[in-house]
Write a structure and sequence with these properties.
Distance between the termini: 12 Å
CATH class of the largest domain: Alpha Beta
Number of helices: 14
Structural class: alpha/beta
Radius of gyration: 21 Å
CATH architecture of the largest domain: 3-Layer(aba) Sandwich
Strand content: 15-25%
Largest sheet: 7 strands, mixed
C-alpha cells in the first residue's frame, strides 16, 4: 500500500485535464450580447484568419464539436464512391470511434499492422493492387495520426514520402491531428515545423485538435487542398458537426493560437512526460520499450500490482497481454504531480 496521498492530477489522459484560464476568459468575453449563428461572427472571422496565417492563404477551416466528428467530416468530404480508407491497426478511427467512420460514411477501413503506429509507403503500394478491380473496395484515402496512438511522431520527411506514395496512386491523405500540438512541439515547436509536416509534406486535409490541449470542446477541419472544400460546409451539417453558437468554439481557438499558447502548453506536457519517464525508468519492475517523444509513456508493470497502483491514482491499460499501461501528462500537469506519482510508483514497485 502506498502511504502518501495521490497527486492532484492523475495520469489517465490529457483529455481529463481542465480548461486553460485564457480559454475560459475568452469564452466569458464571447458571452456578451448577441452574435449571428453558424459562424457569422467576429470570433470565427478572426479564427479563420489565424488558421490561414498558420497554414497558408489558400486553406479553409471548419469548426466542429469534437475529434470523432472532425475525422468523420474530413473523410466524408474526401471519399468517392466505393472508396476505402487505409489506416493503421492502431488508428483512432479504427479502434476508438465505435465504428463511426464505417457506419456514417458507409466506407470500409483497411487497417494494416504497424508495430510503432506509423504507416510506411510500402504499405500504401501493397494496397494499390485493388485499384481498378470492381470486386474490391477502392483505396481512396490514407489516414495517418500525428502524434500516433503509440506516442510516436512522423517526421516531416516520412509524411512527405507517404503523401508522395498516396498521390502517385491517386489517393488523398488525411491527418488525424488530435495531438498535433504535441507532435509540433516535439519537432521544434515552431510554425515552420507545423507547415513542414502538413502543407509542405502534401497532406490534403487535417483534423486539427485542441480539446486535449486546453480547450473545453471543439476541433477544426483544415482543408489544405482546395479540391475537397466545395462539399465541406454541406458535409459538416449532414454529419451533425455544425455548432450553432460557433463563436464559443472560435473564441477558444483564438485564445490558444494567440502568441502560440497551444505550442507552449504542448511543450510543457511533453516535458512532464519526459520527467515521469526519467523518474521511473530506473525502477527494476518498470520496463519501457522506448523513451517518450510526446506526452505519453507506456510502461510494462507487474500484473499483480497494476490494480493497486491504479486504485491509488487512476490510469488506463494499454496492451493487456503484455501488462502495458499508459501514463499520460497534460498541459496542467505539474512537477509536483509527476514527482508524487513517481514516488508512489517507486514505493509500490521498487521492492
Amino acid at each position: 500500500m502506498i502511504s502518501a496521498p495521490p497527486p492532484r492530477r492523475a495520469f489517465a489522459s490529457d483529455n481529463a485535464a481542465g480548461v486553460h484560464p485564457a480559454v475560459f476568459e475568452a469564452l466569458s468575453e464571447a458571452n456578451s450580447g448577441h452574435a449571428l449563428a453558424y459562424g457569422s461572427d467576429r470570433w470565427t472571422t478572426e479564427m479563420n484568419d489565424r488558421l490561414r496565417d498558420l497554414f497558408g492563404s489558400n486553406t479553409s477551416s471548419y469548426l466542429v464539436w469534437g475529434g470523432t466528428g472532425a475525422n468523420v467530416m474530413a473523410l466524408a468530404s474526401m471519399l468517392g464512391p466505393a472508396q476505402a480508407v487505409l489506416c493503421t491497426n492502431w488508428a483512432h478511427i479504427n479502434v476508438d470511434e465505435t465504428g463511426a467512420p464505417e457506419r456514417i460514411l458507409g466506407a470500409k477501413l483497411i487497417d494494416v499492422a504497424c508495430a510503432d503506429g506509423k504507416l510506411v509507403p510500402a504499405q500504401i503500394d501493397e494496397q494499390a493492387h485493388a485499384i481498378g478491380v470492381m470486386h474490391h473496395a477502392q483505396p481512396g484515402v490514407v489516414s495517418i495520426t500525428q502524434s500516433t496512438e503509440l506516442g510516436t511522431v512522423y517526421s516531416a520527411e516520412e509524411i512527405g514520402l507517404l503523401c508522395d506514395a498516396a498521390h502517385r496512386h491517386g489517393m488523398s491523405v488525411h491527418m488525424d491531428g488530435a495531438r498535433i500540438a504535441n507532435a509540433v512541439a516535439a519537432a521544434g515547436g515552431t510554425r515552420a515545423a507545423l507547415r513542414a509536416m502538413t502543407v509542405d509534406a502534401g497532406v490534403d486535409v487535417l483534423s486539427f485538435g485542441a480539446t486535449k490541449n486546453g480547450m473545453m470542446y471543439g476541433e477544426a477541419v483544415v482543408y489544405l487542398n482546395d479540391r475537397f472544400t466545395a462539399a465541406a460546409p454541406y458535409v459538416r451539417k449532414q454529419v451533425t458537426q455544425l455548432p450553432s453558437k460557433m463563436r464559443f468554439v472560435s473564441a477558444q481557438f483564438n485564445a490558444l493560437l494567440h502568441d502560440d499558447l497551444w505550442l507552449t502548453l504542448a511543450a510543457h506536457s511533453n516535458l512532464m512526460a519526459q520527467r515521469l519517464y526519467d523518474a521511473t525508468c530506473s525502477i527494476p519492475a518498470v520496463a519501457y520499450d522506448a523513451a517518450p517523444v510526446v506526452n505519453s509513456v507506456f510502461p510494462h508493470l507487474p500484473p499483480h500490482l497494476i490494480e493497486e497502483l491504479r486504485n491509488w491514482c487512476f490510469f488506463w491499460d494499454w496492451d493487456v497481454p503484455s501488462h502495458q499501461v499508459r501514463w499520460m501528462t497534460a498541459w496542467d500537469t505539474t512537477i509536483e504531480d509527476v514527482d508524487v506519482f513517481a514516488a508512489g510508483v517507486r514505493e509500490l514497485l521498487g521492492s
